[in-house]
Every structure is written in structure tokens, then in C-alpha cells.
Amino acid sequence: MLFAFLRLLAAVGLPSAGAAAFCYLGFRLSGSIHAETWVVLTGLITLAVYLFHYCWPLPHGQSFPISWRRFMLGVVLLLLAVAVFTLIPFQQAWKMYLLSAVLPLAYTGPKIPKMAAVIPLKFLYHKPIVLAAAWVWGAFLLPWICAGGLFEAISWLILTPHIVNLLGLCLLFSWRDRKEDPQAAWLKRVFRHPRQLMTGLALLQLFLLLQAPVFLSTAFLHSVLLVSIGYFIRKDYRWSYVLADASMLLWWF
Fold first, then answer.
1. Burial (Cβ within 10 Å: 0-12, 13-18, ≥19) of residue 57
2. Taking the CB of residue 180, how many other CB atoms lie within 10 A of it?
3. How far is it, in rounded angstroms, from Cα 235 to Cα 250?
4. DSSP calls for 103-166
5. CA torsion 24→42→17→247, rounded to 10°?
6. Contact partners, residue 214, CB within 8 Å, separation at least 6
7. Among 123, 131, 215, 243, which is disulfide-ready with 170 (CB 3.0 to 4.6 Å)?
């Protein structure tokens, strides 16, 4: 059980650090220097969302003891309380964050017994798309809009290569959770040729990177990591997840 707890810490901690890094990346590329509040807020909310998600295992999936699940829900409520307190000075922001709760609920809802009838389990077939949309909106667009930022074409040219990288990572994490997903057949088709898939996404990212007004060395490293992930996913999948975590943490630089 201790090993399961350590896996849980990694499963919720690394994505939370990655979401905060993606938020920081967006502010940095857009030239904003007042990003501290939104970066911390993004990390806290992401941690709460992932903890809440792991409180509700899928049928026949691994479950934590009731005492652990209650503790996790308590931590979720504490993190959300801190987030709400942080958003109090921003009158419009908390309303937008409240409306945005539909994305994590759509992702976790099928696992909750009373919500399964409203959000069918088959909704999780589109898990990579839901994950990518949640990350792009919740970790970048939402905090940037709430901070008063305005989007220009140059901002999208810089951000789009990172969105492609994010989609590749979401596909990888969906492959990791395929045994718990309600239907993994489409994942098997998608990952029939993982090297070609990740290489194609890396080439698309490089192409978009060349359209940007500045060359970002870290984005180039993301492309290299995507190709490496595709190489290792069939040989030693654990290295793929190590490289994926490294790719997320690279958003800090």
C-alpha cells in the first residue's frame, strides 16, 4: 500500500507542477512579469482536480481504502478553499473558474456513481481530447484572460507548438491508463505504430515552431523527447513516462 501511496503522490504531484509550469510558460512567452499568483493558483487547483479524480476508481480498477479517500477529499476541500480565498480580490475571475469546473467534472464524472447516469462512461473514450482541452484552457487561457491579457496572432504562433506537445503527452497518459478505461480498442489502433505517431507529432511541432517569430530551444527539446517517448513506449514504457515528466518540467525554462 505504501508503494501505491507513493505512486499517487507522483501521479498528482508531477501533473500539478507541469500545469503550473505551462501557466508560467504562457505568461513568460507573452511578456508578462506578474504571473506568480496565477501560477500558484493553477498548481493548487490542478492538484485538487487530480486528487479528486483518484478518489473515484473505475469499476474493477484499483481503489484506495475508505480512510485514505476521506483524507484525500479533505485535502481537496482545503486546496479549493485556498483557491477561493486567493480569487476573492478578482471579482470576475472566480465566476470564470467556477464555470470552468465543467471540464474536470466531465473527466471525473463517469467514475462517480451518482453522476454516471448524467455523464456516461463512454465519454472517457475521448480522454486525450478532454485532457488537452482542460490543460490548454485551465493552465493557460483561463489564468491569462483573468489576469487581463489580450491575445494576438504572435501569442498563438508561440503557444501552438506546445499545444501539439501537450496532445502527445495526453495520448501517452491515456495509453498508461488503458486497462482502466472503458474501451481501449481505439488506443490500440492509435498506438499500433507509436514511433511513427510520436515522430509525426514531433515533426508537426517543429513545423509550427518554425512559423513562430522566435526559435525556442526548449520547444525543440520537446520534439526530441516526443520521438524518444515513441521509441521507448514498446521497449520499456517506464522510460516513456520519465521522459514525459521531464517534458512537462521543461515548461519552466
1. middle
2. 15
3. 24
4. HHHHHHGGGSTTTTTTS-GGGGGGHHHHHHHHHHIIIIIHHHHHTT----HHHHHHHHHHHHHH
5. -50
6. 158
7. 131
Exposed, middle or buried by CB within 10 Å (0-12, 13-18, 19+), for 43? buried
Considering only the C-alpha atoms of the chain, give the largest distance between any 2 of them, rounded to a whole number of Å: 52
Cell numbers 512579469 correspond to 33
Report d(CA 233, CA 214) in Å as an integer: 31
Contacts of 141 (CB under 8 A, 6+ apart): 26
Which pLDDT value is given to residue 61?
Answer: 54
CB 111 within 8 A of CB 57: yes
Of 58-72, 81-95, 172-186, highest mean pLDDT: 81-95
Q: pLDDT tier at 40 (50, 70, 90 boundaries)?
A: very high
pLDDT in the model for residue 184: 53
**Over the Cα atoms of the chain, what is R_g?**
18
pTM of the model: 0.83
CA distance 5 to 1: 6
Reading the block at residue 162, the C-alpha cell is: 506546445
Place of cell 477561493: 84
Measured torsion, CA atoms of residues 222, 223, 229, 232, in degrees rounded to the nearest 10? -130
Cell matching residue 37: 499568483
